[in-house]
Predict the 3D structure of the following.
Amino acid sequence: MIDSKGYRPNVGIILCNDEGRVFWAKRSGMNSWQFPQGGIHQNEEPEAAMYRELWEETGLQSKDVQILGRTRYWLRYQLPERYIRKHSEPLCIGQKQIWYILRLVTQESNVRFDLSPKPEFDGWRWVDYWEPLKEVVYFKRKVYRKAMIELGEILLTDSIPVKADGYLAKEKNVRKFAFNKSHFERQAP
């Protein structure tokens, strides 16, 4: 399913533990890491797609997680030219994503990659909140940054039983970069 502008609807999942660290998964047979994500089927709601993708990619079910929040709007990224399949119809130039932040409320031993006929991942680890920005493939970095800034702020509320230490450790640097960039753009002639 591709929209009229060439973007495939998708969900992204930031799964955190009570220490505020995030689930970082290794793509099968590659040395490439990412958050769980996947396409939204026609007539499927984003939340239903998120739970389906969560189960397909990690073996976790709705009972294993608590939804802490989601992005307010679609976040988009474009594929590099070499990844665009020019001869496919309709043409897909990238993805538009709704991102969710979840808290693991079960044993991490419930994570399984053998429930799908073609597993997306073959390994995973807990990492500090901002580490994925350094490791994700370059063309996804901006959308990761936007999702992580918006959703990470949820970890600061007193009602969330997750330590915000990992988020706070580098939050100022990420926000400073965003502010300085926008400040510079406004000042440029």
Notes: The chain has four helices and eight strands.
